[in-house]
Design brief:
Largest interface: A-B, 43 and 35 residues
Helix content of chain B: over 70%
Oligomer: heterodimer
Shape of chain A: globular
Helix content of chain A: over 70%
Strand content of chain B: under 5%
Number of domains of chain A: 1
Radius of gyration of chain A: 21 Å
Number of strands of chain A: 2
Shape of chain B: globular
């Protein structure tokens, strides 16, 4: 056997290594030594993240007879997810070190790393079997994570809702995949399916398959109408888990969605799934916005905001070309830092005071100006106000959606733009509560934990600089262009 | 020379800005001042080294067969619009940018040093130095721009820093409104600039200066002979780009902001509103000169605007009371001189002498006008007033200021052997070569220049001693302020002997300067006559000026009120635009746009309320919706496809 092919799996191998070290250490280390689990995990994962960024970009290759493929964009999205996961780890430290949860902190890290591994597989899978393994590896431990606060009722409710919906969505996805299997004449390789679909005619079975696969992935991305679990789970789960769900899990699913629909179903893009996705995007952006407007609980608020954001991310997919891929990756990257910036503030405040309502944020700038500042930047970026990163990511993703020149997509961008205005309203509600409301602050002045501050600084730096430092987008764009043939060969 | 030094030239001032801007409040005033001065001094040394290497090293990269080369030290992609239309940020080294590096860093360093004395007791000292660094960074970025878009970015940045510095005394309402005026007027002009850039890049598909200026015929050809309202689109583009230059360089009718900008601290006026930023328009035309050459109309436009402005500003300068305003109008007039000179710089006439002369004058003018402004600052520092009525007879009290100011006046009047003589002579020679009318007209302006400068000089230093001196005796400024005065005076004495034609010409090949005797004799005679006239009228207190004023009160008043340009602007904006146009727009905004937005909000709120049942918390319903959604999606698509 040729072991050198595993060189292409370098990200997975590094992650697996980190996981094993953390796992073994947490299992076999003594009571005292176990205190070091947290720093060990942070340092190892941080080093791993940095290593993957700076290692020479020679990841290209396929493993397991083409079931696993690594390309430039795969490496990019994995790196982006790494950054997200690292920030989540940083902001979770204070919570996981609290007396209620400290005994199980090792489990938290292990489960988180395992789900990340599953996401890696989802990203690189070019065979539905491997894809499903990755998907399940990324889904099931998340239910355990959602239930992590054992003494809280909401946490259990969140977990049960998540697992039920996850199981159901998996079932639908499998059903869709079995249709695909039938249509492709007995292969689950993306390339085989693509070829088979290119020569077959449109049928009801194919449409069902497409709709079911879309629904199965739509669950992970919380696309409307497959999003109903989102708010309850986001609200109930521990905040660190919520931020992980809303950012990292979504980013991986978005990329997998892109690859499956363009590479595998590329032949039926214009005939079928473009319009399915079209409807779903409109519903997602609009419904997400409409619900977000009325939320008072910050975590619920962020849940609907993230539903709406997922719709914007899908604009890159519907473009179905290299610009779409590049702008989607960039959007995810910016979304990672913006959303995690908001969650870092929310979780810091929750850990300190237990307050989660938007009303409690009133007058926050008087007691905690820096937190208010970070939150404001995050909100501006999510709303897409220049010169923050969110503005550039929105512009780029709109450009991508219009790049095909189709009139319908121009209309879609128009609808998205109108929704951006609506989203401005609710994002600014938070800013207004913090800065303009004349009330005395409910939340006393306090100094947030060191790890939380590092996480916040990382996010703020990202929000401020990602848009202005063009090499980032340029790098992503070049990666997308070099991957274009593999992904979009079937579309145009 | 690698990329390190060019990067440092830009990086040092911006770092200083960040350090002083963010940390300035917490550091002692002295430290902020010293840091600013050191930062600028280092930048100046590096710039000198870069310019020296460029001009004198003789390396093949910089000079080939006597022709100086345009070198892009670096040029990195910043923003890609399309595959070919890419905005880059870079560093272009060529004769004019190297010359500008020297001018900007010299004046900026002098002003940094001078301000240490001048601004010593002002609150916000650290902020002041931070803004100075920001300005220096922006101006340096502007002159080394490799492409017109980069230039535009830095163009706006100098606008912002100028705005910040004019409004530095933000508690004074006059300073605030002056800063707003400057920003709005120049910004309005920049709109033309931007449209010009868009037109140009639309046709040429490039922003790069070298691409455009090395192949101006190609630029013309790329427009494919398209015309708009009778003029070719390239003419439109170049005239619109020039509009941006008119705004920054205060050409008529966009000059109205510059006199008011004198509300800023005097060293700022010296740096920004005399020596560097206001010549950006001239620099812009010089940068794009080969392209201007292929569209004759736009170049004629440049010279006509220049000639009118030069005369207008010179007349107004004769009647101002505020010494900084006199200098401001003199600046407008001198910049217009440079513009006209560029406009007549046809290569077939005197090998494009006007170009070289214009750049030469830019160089010498920067030195002596900064000197005059800094001198004015020393005077204001001493008597605490901007008006010459509070001065008079100061030569005994402030000898250093007196002598340096006199040198500045002689230089601007164009008296041999001071620097202004040489550059002005070359400009006049170029104008005479174009047509005797241009030459005669501009010689008249030069005469007026000598007259009003010496009127100012005599009214400040001679005339009659002000009685207030007994209570408050004026004296020369501290060393931080005197050193720049003496240095700039020395430069103004010798700068004329620089063989400028060896360094900067329109085609970058050397041009041997020779004094055109008839032109030189005429201009010298005119200048001397004007000075004599000023001496007769103002050397000692006498009633002639008042009598002269009473003889033609209408004309005097009109000139004193700057020929009512501000009033005209007020009328047009308030009476016509605000009343006639804005009211309708405001109504539309309130009743149509706002109402639509309110409608959106209402609909959104209502819908949001109506669909709240969807989120019931009941998981069976969730799953039902999920399944129904998937099936519906397939079914609807199926129906649509049928």
């Amino acid at each position: 056997m040729d072991y050198s092919q595993f060189g292409a799996m370098r990200p997975e191998l590094i992650l697996l290594g980190i996981f094993l070290i953390v796992f073994l250490f947490d299992t076999f280390a003594g009571e005292k030594a176990r205190k070091a689990t947290t720093p060990l995990t942070l340092v190892l994962f941080g080093l791993g993240t940095v290593a993957m960024w700076i290692l020479p970009d020679s990841f290209e290759g396929s493993v397991f007879g083409g079931m696993y493929v690594s390309t430039h964009t795969c490496v990019w999205i994995k790196n982006i997810l790494n950054v997200g996961a690292f920030i989540v780890l940083l902001q979770s430290v204070k919570w996981i070190e609290s007396p209620d949860d400290i005994v199980r902190k090792g489990e938290f890290y292990e489960l988180l790393l395992v789900t990340l591994f599953g996401m890696y597989l989802m990203i690189s899978a070019r065979h539905f079997l491997l894809f499903v393994i990755g998907l399940e590896a990324a889904s099931l431990p998340l239910a355990a994570l959602a239930a992590f606060s054992k003494k809280k009722y909401e946490s259990h409710e969140a977990a049960i809702k998540y697992i039920m919906t996850a199981v159901f969505s998996s079932a639908i996805l499998m059903m869709g995949l079995s249709f695909v299997y039938g249509l492709s004449g007995g292969s689950l390789y993306f390339n085989d399916i693509a070829l088979a679909l290119a020569s077959s005619s449109m049928s009801g079975l194919l449409l069902c398959a497409l709709a079911f696969v879309l629904a199965g992935l739509g669950f992970k991305l919380s696309l409307v109408p497959f999003h109903l679990w989102t708010a309850d789970v986001y609200q109930g789960a521990p905040t660190a888990v919520t931020s992980y769900l809303s950012v990292v899990s979504k980013g991986a699913a978005a990329f997998a969605f892109f690859v499956i629909f363009t590479q595998c179903f590329g032949a039926v893009y214009a005939d079928a799934w473009e319009w399915m996705l079209y409807a779903v995007i409109i519903a997602t952006i609009t419904v997400g916005n409409l619900f977000a407007m009325r939320q008072k609980n910050m975590k619920r608020f962020m849940a609907f905001s993230s539903v709406s954001q997922a719709g914007y991310i899908m604009l890159g997919v519907i473009a179905g070309n290299a610009i779409g891929m590049a702008s989607m990756l960039f959007y995810i990257f910016v979304y990672v830092v913006s959303n995690l910036g908001a969650f870092a503030v929310i979780s810091s405040i929750e850990n300190e005071t237990g307050k989660l309502s938007m009303d409690d944020y009133r007058g926050l700038h008087k007691s905690n100006p820096w937190l208010s500042f970070a939150m404001t930047l995050a909100m501006f970026s999510l709303a897409g106000i220049p010169p923050f990163a969110g503005f550039f990511s929105k512009i780029l993703i709109f450009t991508a959606a219009t790049s095909t020149g189709s009139m319908a997509l121009y209309m879609l961008v128009l609808i998205a733009l109108i929704n951006t205005i609506i989203s401005l309203y609710y994002y600014l509600l938070v800013v207004k509560a913090m800065w303009i409301s004349p009330d005395e602050p409910v939340i006393p002045a306090y100094r947030s934990a060191c790890t939380e501050r590092v996480a916040l600084w990382l996010c703020v730096a990202g929000i401020v600089f990602f848009g202005l430092v063009s090499p980032i987008y340029q790098g992503i764009f070049n990666a997308s262009v070099s991957d274009a043939l593999a992904f979009f060969g079937m579309i145009h | 020379m690698g990329v390190t030094l060019p990067i440092l030239i830009l990086a040092l001032p911006i770092t200083m800005f960040l350090v002083l801007g963010l940390g300035g409040v917490k550091m002692p005033r002295k430290m902020a001042g010293v840091l600013g001065i050191l930062g600028m001094g280092t930048t100046a040394v590096i710039s000198y080294w870069v310019a020296f290497t460029y001009f004198f090293s003789g390396e093949a990269a910089y000079i080939v067969d006597g022709v100086r080369q345009q070198v892009q030290m670096f040029d990195v992609t910043w923003l890609a619009f399309t595959q070919s239309l890419v905005v880059k940020i870079g560093f272009l080294l060529d004769p004019i940018s190297a010359m500008m590096l020297v001018v900007i860093t010299t004046i900026s360093f002098m002003v940094h040093l001078y301000s240490w004395g001048y601004m010593e007791h002002e609150p916000g000292f650290q902020r002041y130095y931070a803004f100075l660094s920001l300005f220096s960074f922006s101006m340096l970025g502007l002159v080394v721009a490799t492409n017109i878009f980069q230039m535009y970015i830095f163009w706006e940045l100098v606008g912002v820093s100028s705005y910040l510095l004019i409004g530095f005394f933000y508690k004074l309402p006059s300073a605030v409104s002056a800063s707003k005026k400057a920003f709005i007027v120049t910004r309005f002009a920049d709109l033309g600039f931007l449209i010009g850039i868009l037109i140009l890049s639309f046709y040429t598909d490039t922003f790069n200066f070298i691409d455009m200026t090395n192949n101006p015929q190609g630029v013309l050809a790329s427009t494919g002979g398209a015309t708009f309202m009778g003029a070719s689109v390239l003419t439109w583009a170049m005239v619109l780009i020039f509009t941006g230059g008119m705004g920054k360089s205060a050409m008529m009718p966009l000059h109205i902001w510059l006199p008011d900008a004198m509300e800023g601290p005097t060293p700022v006026s010296a740096l920004i509103h005399a020596a560097t930023m206001v010549v950006a328009g001239v620099y812009l035309v010089a940068r794009m000169f080969p392209v201007y050459l292929v569209v004759e109309t736009s170049l004629v436009f440049v010279s006509v605007i220049g000639a009118i402005t030069a005369f207008y500003a010179a007349v107004v300068a004769c009647t101002q009371i505020d010494i900084k305003r006199v200098l401001a109008f003199s600046t407008i007039s001198q910049i217009a001189f440079m513009m006209t000179s560029l406009g007549v710089a046809w290569p077939e006439l005197h090998d494009g002498l006007g170009y070289m002369a214009s750049m030469f004058h830019l160089f010498t003018h920067a030195m002596f006008k900064a000197l005059l402004f800094l001198g004015a600052g020393a005077l204001i520092h001493a008597v605490h007033s901007n008006n010459y009525t509070a001065m008079g007879g100061l030569r005994k009290y402030m000898p250093i200021t007196h002598w340096t100011f006199l040198i500045g006046c002689l230089a601007i009047a164009g008296i041999w052997p001071f620097s202004g003589f040489f550059s002005k002579d070359e400009m006049l020679a170029a104008m005479f070569a174009q047509h005797w009318f241009w030459g005669a007209w501009m010689t008249m302006v030069a005469g007026l220049t000598a007259f009003y400068m010496f009127r100012l000089y005599y009214l400040i230093f001679w005339w009659e001693e002000n009685p207030h001196y007994k209570e408050h005796k004026p004296h020369d400024a501290p060393w931080q302020m005197s050193v720049p005065l003496i240095f700039l005076a020395a430069v103004s004495c010798v700068a004329g002997f620089i063989p400028f034609g060896e360094f900067v010409t329109w085609n970058r090949a050397p041009y041997h300067i020779h004094i055109e005797l008839p032109v030189a004799a005429t201009s010298l005679t005119v200048a001397v006559l004007a000075i004599v006239l000023a001496t007769v009228m103002y050397a000692k207190k006498n009633p002639i000026p008042t009598r002269l004023k009473d003889m033609m009160p209408g004309l005097w008043m009109a000139a004193h009120r700057r020929f009512y340009w501000d009033e005209i602007y007020m009328f047009v904006t308030h009476k016509i635009i605000f009343n006639g146009i804005c009211r309708g727009i405001a109504w539309f905004d309130r009743h149509v746009i706002d109402a639509t937005m309110d409608g959106f909000a209402k609909v959104a709120q209502k819908t949001s309320y109506a669909i709240r049942g969807l989120q019931s918390g009941n998981i069976q319903l969730y799953v039902l919706w999920y399944f129904a959604g998937a099936v519906l999606l397939a079914a609807i698509t199926w129906i649509c496809l049928l």
